[in-house]
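Progress note, sequence design subtask.
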């Protein structure tokens, strides 16, 4: 497969050739200061008297005046409302003594002392699904001590199977009594 050739990139636009004036292209030069021979009543603001332009300006002016009036009326209405509310507030009497209410509210010191820590609340620890290693070792040592006591007991030494079956029978009765 061969190379793909790219076209040459042009950095400059080609020069613009000027057109030579011909006899058919006539330019009429008008002297702006020369008003002789022409109607002197021409108004240079004649475009403003155009009905479409005039309506646009009138609408714009009316919109401006309308917005200004709304702002002014809004301020007046707000001032009237404030005056009415102030008057109404002055007419309402304070009912009862607020001193008793203030005494009933707790002070900041009492609030801070009440929420110092877990002493005020009884928080129960959740039982873990897998106990900590320290607790497991402690339980294992207790179980070993219990088995040693059982092995030293004289009734176990005389009849080990009978003693164990009797113990299990008593334990099952105890569990049934707890359930009912």
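Output:
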């Amino acid at each position: 497969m061969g190379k793909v050739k790219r076209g040459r990139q042009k950095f400059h636009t080609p020069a613009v050739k000027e057109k030579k004036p011909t006899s058919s292209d006539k330019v009429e030069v008008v002297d702006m200061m020369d008003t002789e021979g022409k109607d002197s009543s021409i108004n240079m603001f004649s475009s403003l008297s155009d009905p479409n332009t005039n309506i646009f300006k009138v609408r714009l002016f009316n919109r401006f005046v309308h917005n200004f009036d709304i702002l002014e009326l809004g301020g007046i209405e707000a001032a009237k409302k404030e005056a009415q509310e102030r008057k109404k507030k002055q007419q309402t009497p304070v009912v009862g003594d607020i001193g008793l209410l203030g005494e009933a509210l707790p002070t900041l010191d009492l609030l801070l002392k009440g929420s110092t820590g877990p002493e005020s609340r009884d928080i129960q620890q959740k039982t873990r699904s897998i106990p900590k290693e320290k607790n497991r070792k402690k339980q294992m040592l207790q179980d070993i001590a219990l088995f040693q006591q059982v092995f030293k007991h004289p009734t176990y030494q005389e009849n080990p199977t009978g003693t164990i079956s009797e113990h299990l029978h008593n334990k099952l009765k105890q569990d049934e009594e707890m359930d009912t």
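Residues 139-168 form one domain. Work on this subtask will continue into the next period as scheduled.
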